[in-house]
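Propose amino acids for all 186 sites.
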């Protein structure tokens, strides 16, 4: 027999999605902001809570899809592993490079990779769930493996944020360096 929570998620999936997403987001992001950032433990805990909070809409969608349509289908472990490992390695590299842009210069790249590897599990897990045995989750995330639109739109969507981030970082660094020059004149 299903619990009242599972029945309510099945009956009201949109409300359940937003409720779970908002609860996870605020439940993880507020502590991440309010944790004292003095020591290494506080910084690491804040970093991981913030990353979990960012992925909360995806986690909420996976949860609702699981309860909405939980029929099992056959999907071999080997094919899921073939998707998981390259995605995890790629996500680890992307997170490490992103951290290297904001980290102090004395922090080594090996430490950044070690710090990024657990965070990179989240996107790897989401992409691997596109081959999930649960039909509802597979249907929700199916466009990750077989895009339904034109390839150019997906290409633009994937590279839009990194281009904006890189451009903003470049402008910020240029503004800081020019401001230092301005301060020396005054």
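Proposal:
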């Amino acid at each position: 027999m299903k619990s009242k929570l599972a029945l309510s998620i099945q009956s009201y999936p949109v409300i359940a999605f937003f409720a779970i997403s908002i609860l996870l987001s605020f439940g993880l992001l507020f502590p991440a902001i309010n944790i004292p950032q003095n020591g290494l433990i506080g910084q690491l805990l804040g970093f991981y809570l913030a990353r979990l909070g960012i992925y909360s809409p995806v986690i909420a969608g996976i949860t609702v899809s699981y309860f909405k349509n939980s029929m099992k289908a056959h999907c071999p472990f080997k094919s899921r592993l073939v998707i998981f490992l390259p995605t995890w390695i790629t996500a680890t590299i992307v997170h490490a490079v992103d951290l290297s842009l904001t980290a102090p210069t004395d922090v080594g790249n090996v430490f950044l990779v070690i710090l990024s590897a657990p965070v990179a599990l989240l996107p790897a897990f989401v992409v691997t769930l596109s081959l999930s045995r649960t039909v509802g989750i597979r249907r929700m995330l199916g466009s990750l493996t077989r895009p339904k639109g034109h390839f150019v739109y997906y290409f633009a969507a994937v590279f839009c944020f990194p281009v904006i981030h890189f451009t903003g970082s470049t402008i910020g660094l240029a503004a800081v360096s020019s401001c230092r020059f301005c301060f020396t004149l005054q």
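The chain has three domains: 1-68, 72-144, 147-186. The chain has a mean pLDDT of 76.
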